[in-house]
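ugh ok fine here u go
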Amino acid sequence: MTSGDCPLCALDAAEALWANDQCFVISAEIAGVGTICRVVWREHIREMSALDAAARGAFMDVVFGVEAVLRTLARPAKINLASLGNLVPHLHWHVIPRYLDDAHFPDAIWAPARREAPARSLKDAVLRAALEAGLGG
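structure:
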């Protein structure tokens, strides 16, 4: 996959919930789980080791900041952090609130559902304001 056909490169960072010069944050709804966030590196890079130490640190500061915001807003039992990139080889992290009664717990959200789960969703405006407060405007 090249940057020309990469779905993350095609995203308009101006529509992100939060952004800086290096990365941006988007949300997604996952059935049986609720709202998750993805922290996306702006440049089409495949692996964390391709970033220098300062960029890696800055990127992870954003990932950890998003985790803290989701812990406060969503009050999950656990947060999962995942950087896979097998299907979309563009550097990004999934920040996933997990609940004891979500459809997949304790398995990964990509595993088959174990149960029906209550609907959980965070409004983009609330999430955007919390990210700006937690990460800076």
